[in-house]
Amino acid sequence: MSKVRTAWFACVVLLGILGYWTQAPAKADAAASTVTVLQVDGIISPATSDFITRGLRQAAENGSKLVILELDTPGGLDTSMRSIIRQILASPIPVASFVSPGGARAASAGTFILYASHIAAMTPASNLGAASPVSIGMPGPGAADDGKDKKGGLDTMSSKVTNDAAAYIRSLAQLRGRNADFAEKAVLEARSMSAQEALKAGVVDVIAADLTQLLAQIDRKAITLDSGAVATLNTAHATIERIEPDWRTRVLALVANPQIALILMMIGIYGLFFELTSPGIALPGVAGLICLLLGLYAFQMLPVNWAGVGLIAAGTAMMIAEAFLPSFGVLGIGGIIAFVLGGLFLTDTGIPGFDLSMPFLIGLAVVSAGLIMVIGTVAARVHKRAVVSGREDMQGALGVVTSGKDGMIYADVRGESWRVVCNEPLSPGDHVKVVALEGLILQVVRIGQASMAGRPAKGESHVL
After folding, report:
1. Angstrom distance (rounded) from CA 99 to CA 117
2. I need a surface site. Which of 12, 304, 372, 408 has the fewest CB within 10 A?
């Protein structure tokens, strides 16, 4: 009997040891796993794309097992959105998009990013959808202001862009096994959906109140990456590492804004114009060149209509010409009109803060015309002003003869000793006036004789 008890006891101990050995690696793995969180709050822009790209790279280098994008966005630029999605699809670690906090939204470009992520999650009081694209620039021929043709349908260009976006989001839905019908309607009909509706419709995978609850719900979930590898998440006890936007992201977000880019471009033109009209100062030219390059770099990143940029440049050139040509205001008014039209053509994203408003454009055009006119007027007055230095300034200068030696006469003119020549004899103390300059010799005429006290005595040498 004692042998049986001993055998049972040994079996229990052995099972305990085996259980510890099998659970220890899992606990160690869970304790050691790291989750990187990137907060995306606001418009999807080139700065957002750069931030997410660098965040995914840093998370992979740090050995994170999961990257979570906390989304709260009204949408953004198509080029930036597609760049982010390419990075998600190529990521060596799983990416989860979490529409958070409560009341957040993943509209337009945010819906595409949510569909592209390996895990789609939302908070209870959030929504997604309304992913219809908006074309950059003015409507095409035959289209009304709303992008529709006169028969009520989309014009050809808008139809092409919309159908392309619908096909793109449908392909992402099929890749992740999510509701493709709603994805297509979100683009074609601007449909939206709440978090609970999205969960029932198979649009998202999880509804969680906060980040801790999300990590608990997706723990032990197997994720198939686009490379074919399968990653099992251990997130229940994971360490959360947040990556905040750095100075580079903030500067890029500031520059990559159409309003800031246009202001930088105009400051650059002001600086170069001032440098050309008043050469030698250097500071306005250097600052203007830097601002102009920053403005052009921002335009290169943004999906702008280059016809609008051309109109802005032509309007600025006409306003500059108004300062020098007697056009009686025709060039100036034409320049302001071209400038405003160029600004209207420049962008049409439908995103608050990313479009140029009419009051902003008119105000900037009027200020630009005023500054250019002031700079041009000051420059014209400077060019017409009489010369106050150099050869021309010496004519008419007064001086006093100081000495003479070996037939060479010297006079003090404006505090300097000059060799002078005259058609009549000169004596020290005679007052002279400069009439010409030949090399370094002044041609003078006598305008006053020296006093008798200052003349040489009889027998002394005379100045010839």
Report:
1. 12
2. 12
